[in-house]
Specification:
heterodimer; A: alpha/beta; 10 helices; 21% strand; B: alpha/beta
Amino acid sequence: MREILRVTGLEVELGKRRGLFRHKPGVRAVDGVDLVVHEGGILGIVGESGCGKTTLARTVLGLQCESEGRIEFSGHVVSGVPARQARRMRRAIQYVHQDPGAALDPWWRLGASLAEGLAIHGVTDRAEQKARIAEIMQAVGLDMAMTERYPHELSGGQQRRMGLARILLLRPKIVILDEPTAGLDLSVQASVLRLLYDLRDRFGLTYIFISHDLSVVRRVCDRIAVMYLGKVVEEGNASDIFAAPRHPYTRALIAAAPHLDGVQEGPMLRGDPPSLRNVPSGCRFHPRCPIAQPRCTSEEPSFDSISENQRVACHYWQEGISEKQKPEGQAHATL
Amino acid sequence: MTSPLLSIQDLSVHIRGDAGIARILDGITLSVPPGVTMGVVGESGCGKSTLLRAVLGILPRNASIPHGKLEFKGKDLIKVNWAAARGRIGFVPQDPYLSLNPVFRAGDQILEIMRKHAPGTRKDHASTLIDLFRAVQLPDPEAALAKYPHQFSGGQRQRLLIAAALACAPDLLVADEPTTALDVTTQREILALLRGLVSDKGLSLLFVTHDFGVLAALCDRVTVLYAGRVVESGLTSDVLRNPQHPYTRLLLACHPDRAVNLLGIPGTVPAATQQPEGCRFHPRCPIARAACSKEVPPVTEFANSHLVACPWYADELPEQALA
């Protein structure tokens, strides 16, 4: 598959102030991230809240300026330019909000919200607007009559479809989906996932799928990047990572996801991730890591390839794989 | 079996509104024996939260209970009043970020509950609370007493709320999706904590969720609700492994772990004011017969304590419904 987006050494510092007398340091929400996205693929980005998933997405989108690093889109460098220009160069990258209902103006009919996006992007001809809206509404499985309604009349699933319709009008190449299934019922979630597949095939889209629901990520994504405190700690094919997670954080994250058989085993992570203002020395995961060694507190692990398709940032990724992990909290459902 | 701690029989709850009377719950029967964790599962609008509110006696003013019994420790709370159960039922709310008042110390908020409902002096209460903080594994329990809610993380706040629910040493704990606002890693810790507390203190738990994974990890038994009625109930392992009602079967097939069904279930949950006659699932059911739109389906015992409210449960679902 062709490479469509490449991110190299990306750093984003948030909340930095430069005064006349005083400099206030910011926090590095994204701290040296390398990613490659292939055309037509679905890259999942997973991690606990505060790990920098959304900041990464906003930076790729051009809504947030990078402090360091390079972003290449379709072979062109699109980073290192002023904010407005950055956003213009990245028009073909679009974003679907976590809560698409809140992203719609409650006083506007849905048709007006859809036409607004087109007008901003230079499609001002009414007839053409209408034709494009009709095409997209049909594609996302909504009735054209819906454009006369107001946002509060939509159900959760319809809101998601509307959020997708709104950005598909702009004919994007890459769509960033921020928690696209959060808060949806199981049956609605299934139909939204099916729709995402259909739209990808029909419009030749590439997805970046931000989610904390590992069952969904496992089902949908072909590649995964696991983030911890602003860094990617493991990246690889979804099937490989779920079959054999290498980084101890990935292992704990996968072990924590509840399953239908009720079995929860593998190492349990204690406590919360440390604050970005106080990043631990060495490997930033070491205070919570079950296999940490003295070396981990001083030496930061590099992000190394361990196979053709998989990279891991851990000194001891080979350890603890063969070791039989003790089952903990014997599940009730297996009784 | 010993007599249940909580026994709900044929409970109906109606809510009067502008659009007419909404029959939110219609003939719910379920019981929670001592020491059992009972999960109530269903999609939004099925009446899960109303059921919890009925148990807690905090239904809205325009709600009425036309018939049914709600027995807690042998007393019908609808007849004698919920005061009979005060302090004996603890409640863990859904959102740890919204459920604590930000301007009061977390400890004081819990001590206030104890002053109202538990005997003893403030000193006794404070020492009980520190023990509870230890039981819910809050770091530095003595210092936690004087902290404000914003000084705790989301997972720690949920621990605080669990401690608050346990403050009056209840017999029954009622929880409304207490892990939806948390990360999976924190969720796992909270589930392990609840499991431990339930077995250590011999508590019963009534646990509402829409997440089958969480249900499987925590609950011994499950009741599946659809549009205000019980469609299936039984041991969690039986129901999840071998679902019988067409609704449960279709819903579980949507789960990404099973992932046979990416169509969803056609149609939507009916509005509470416009419930269909007969079986409430029949407009969306792929195996519905003519009779389903007229008669309320009888509850059949499929296997030992595994109940199904569908007479056609043995029928195969058509393959396109699972495509």
